[in-house]
Amino acid sequence: MFSTDFDPSLALPADWRNGTFVGRIDTGEGPTPVLLSGGNLHDMTPVAATVADLFEKAAFDASAGRPLGDIAALGLSAAPGAKKRLLSPVDLQCVKAAGVTFAVSAVERVIEERARGDYAKAASIRAALEDKVGSGIQSVKPGSEQAAALKAALIEDGMWSQYLEVAIGPDAEIFTKSPVLSTVGWGTDIGIRSDSTWNNPEPEIVLVMNSKGKPLGATLGNDVNLRDFEGRSALLLGKAKDNNASCALGPLIRVFDASFTMDDVRSATVDLDILGPEGYSLKGTSNMSKISRDPTDLAAQAMSEHHYPDGYALFLGTLFAPVQDRDEPGRGFTHKVGDIVTISSARLGNLVNRVTTSKAAPAWTFGIRDLMGNLAKRGLL
After folding, report:
1. Are residues 115 and 223 in the same domain?
2. Is 100 helix (H, G, I), strand (E, B) or coil?
3. 2: which residues sit within 8 A by CB, 6+ positions away?
4. Which parts of the sequence belong to the Fumarylacetoacetase-like C-terminal domain (predicted)?
5. In terms of domains, do 154 and 185 share one?
6. Cβ–Cβ < 8 Å for 162, 234
7. Within 10 Å of residue 255's Cβ, how many Cβ atoms?
8. What SS3 state is found at 342?
9. From CA 342, how far away is CA 187, in angstroms rounded?
10. What digits encode the pLDDT tens for the residues 224-261?
11. Domain of 349?
12. Rounded-to-integer distance, Cα 13 and Cα 219, Å
């Protein structure tokens, strides 16, 4: 059953009272950065007006904030108009994503490309590619001499693809997933374009960096993907990825400290559970230990020669590529309105969203001008 009422004992990891978490809430005045420490929530506006500012200052000392009480007793909700509303945990950070970071996802992207977004052709192409490509790309380090040799062999066999280039070549695929302030959070509806007929969730761990590119924490994310759009042309990536309500993050950002480190990200298991309105069920698992590039390398590649004065969040990619049939043999998986998507990981909790169309989802109306105006009105600038 889908609920917008936030219960930390269900949404957060088992050790949530021992960790440090950052998020945003709105109690009626406007978006407010909060710090969860020892089970108690603190309003951090006395030291930082935004989450981006909080990460830039690394101001993770709860004593510097204003106590709000035990989070379990606050009655937070993700429902629009709720008196104490839980929001997406990022605000001014750029939201980036790394694609094709696992061997299986590379194969699936090649399938999309060769099928030109036609799900009916996918099964036969998948069988041919997995036999010739699947094991090969899992055994080489991207950018290595072995990777270059595999590329040469695949080109000779007529099997090369732009997706294999970013899977085993020296440069990772990094793209902009979502505009600043457009992400949705835990317990909200997540949007799929109404004209898409082949799509899926992408359960991922998301790193959060400061302006220097230093990872300071992690959360869960759903990098919704439209396989029909991107499959027709890689130049449609923006249309496949950036749509209203199509990027979910949450529930909170877990800050790196003695209880949670980058090694926990490297060894994490990310589970996916989809429950359809017709009773359909799909489960999947993504093991971060199988990622082709280290998370810190991906963070550095996202930083590259860019500048992110407000920091950035980075989706690390997923091993999950759903091929389980839903409606008819050979069609594979695609979303239906009403699907409940749960993404979970032991050290980060779970991110739950209900699927709707981007057209039907609440419009994104609160932008940077609105935030600056709100902060100025509250005397926080």
Report:
1. no
2. coil
3. 340, 352, 354
4. 174-355
5. no
6. yes
7. 22
8. strand
9. 10
10. 999 899 889 889 999 999 999 999 999 999 999 999 99
11. 90-99+173-377
12. 11
